[in-house]
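Because discrete structure vocabularies remain unfamiliar, we reproduce here a specimen of the format, pairing a chain with its fold in token form:
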Amino acid sequence: MRIVAIIQARVGSTRLPGKVLMNILDKPVLWHVVQRTSQSKLVEEVVVATTTNEADQAIVSLCQAQGWLYFRGSEGDVLDRYYQTAKQYHADVIVRITSDCPLIDSEVIDQVIKTFIEGQPKLDYSSNTLPPRTFPRGLDTEVFSLSTLERAWREDANPATREHVTPYVYRHPEKFQLQGITNNVDYSYMRWTVDTLEDLTFVRKIFEYFGNNGFTWRDVLYVLNEHPEWLKINRHVQQKVVP
């Protein structure tokens, strides 16, 4: 079973263009996402899935400079981009990560993968984003089989949901075996993702506190318990709704 993490990344963004290349501790946001995803014990390969848009040559150049695996595909049809990337890199199981989550955590990734692998009956999809959501936004991890991805790719005819890759899967529990992962404490009110400058300011504070990438999401919770005022930086930011 070949487990491949695919990180979708593009320069274009409606609220914060170029955010994935903005720096945290002198490294791009995308660099931190790749590094922290690579700390997973269960992921065998990490691939950046970017687009054929000329603007995303900057992402390709970063991948080449860092020696990262990458794939270029459709900008709007992200479901197709994932499917083509998964086929290109012979993935049996796909871990979906987005490039605006520099605090993504390998412990959480492995927890979702383990749930997927050990699920009885056999699972098609596992995630820590299914209701009730209990993890901070920014630790979002989805795991699904190639056959699940292929079925969604084949059957989902809605461009709006194809842009978000997995809605067809988790909105059809009659077709797919789903399993959510929850934390025993609800931290879903926390925003650890980067959609706005306020989000970036918040995440930079976290990284500057530690000075490196060697911390876990539980370490972040400890720091926020010491500095609850930091949560006010981006508390007002609204999460975009998936159509």
Residues 143 and 223 are 29 Å apart (CA to CA). The first strand starts at residue 3 and ends at 8. The longest helix spans residues 197-210. The domain at 3-232 is CATH 3.90.550.10 (Spore Coat Polysaccharide Biosynthesis Protein SpsA; Chain A).
